[in-house]
Amino acid sequence: xxxxxxxxxxxxxxxxxxxxxxxxxxxxxxxxxxxxxxxxxxxxxxxxxxxxxxxxxxxxxxxxxxxxxxxxxxxxxxxxxxxxxxxxxxxxxxxxxxxxxxxxxxxxxxxxxxxxxxxxxxxxxxxxxxxxxxxxxxxxxxxxxxxxxxxxxxxxxxxxxxxxxxxxxxxxxxxxxxxxxxxxxxxxxxxxxxxxxxxxxxxxxxxxxxxxxxxxxxxxxxxxxxxxxxxxxxxxxxxxxxxxxxxxxxxxxxxxxxxxxxxxxxxxxxxxxxxxxxxxxxxxxxxxxxxxxxxxxxxxxxxxxxxxxxxxxxxxxxxxxxxxxxxxxxxxxxxxxxxxxxxx
Length: 344
Ligand code: NAD
Known about the structure:
Layout: E1 2-5, H1 10-19, E2 26-29, E3 47-50, H2 58-66, E4 71-74, H3 84-90, E5 93-95, H4 102-118, H5 120-128, E6 146-150, H6 154-166, E7 170-174, H7 180-184, E8 188-189, H8 192-198, E9 201-204, H9 218-223, E10 228-232, H10 241-250, E11 253-258, H11 280-287, E12 291-293, H12 302-322, E13 328-330, H13 335-338
Parallel strand pairs: 1-2, 1-3, 3-4, 4-5, 6-7, 6-9, 7-8, 9-10, 10-11, 11-12
Antiparallel strand pairs: 5-13
Helix pairs in contact: 1-12, 2-3, 4-6
Bound molecules: nicotinamide-adenine-dinucleotide (NAD).
């Protein structure tokens, strides 16, 4: 199948080159993100491949369909950037990579937690300046603390287990569909309010959808324990950033570790080191010593890149052969079997 891949970096090309060995598909790689401005590049391609910050809204999907696109292969798990109603309307099948590195993302959430707690980001800079003073670097033992995991799917479940078994935290969890095995293994499911009130650390692992948009907002922050550590490796808009900045200023939130940001589309995955950041809210976050930001790199492990490329190529082959795909989020022929359970 002839495919165009938007938003491509060199590392994507390398992993896809391996995955394509022996296959008949051809890929045109472009650096541009998919948007209404760039959608014309897809003309004549039956398949397009996109990532987390490409925009496949109703207008883009209409134009894609008019120009012959029938299959959108997401090389990520989340699909909040695709208008599924428009895809259905125009008969465009959408598939994703449901799982590629749950360990990598959970481990990154723990890395943010550990770095923030022990101030590794500050210590690293100090030591390079031969400043070995310890004031300002005081942390706490994770052992015995109460950690809250919101969303215990593939990633949240691993984060909960590391916190519980690895660090000896008491783990509270909130999920619309609790995991019985996790509950038997020492994780206690509670209502969201109880989790917010009780935890020293809260880590978000649920998808972004209308229900979870701004899950963390001014009123939920008011419920939190003073000094709570908040971690988000899921999707930026789970958090109302302005409310979180107020929480950080008042001390209600003791520290914040984020790998995602609600307006990250204009920032992440690019080298902007020579430019003036135009987003004042994001720039404010970067000034705070108790905030640690990474640029959507939680997934970025060798294993994940390999799995993303392999599964995407497999999705395309399956679609070409059968006009269906087991990893479809939406596809006319199989929607009854797969898409009904999916909310994001
Ligand atoms: P998953 O689908 O396996 O798990 C999501 C869990 O959230 C499910 O158990 C679901 O029941 C629960 N959930 C759904 N709605 C909820 C709600 N309203 N309240 C509480 N829980 C709810 O997904 P996953 O693979 O564990 O991924 C979780 C999220 O991580 C993805 O949606 C994606 O946004 C994000 N992610 C980020 C990166 C990264 O690099 N930063 C990489 C992969 C995934």
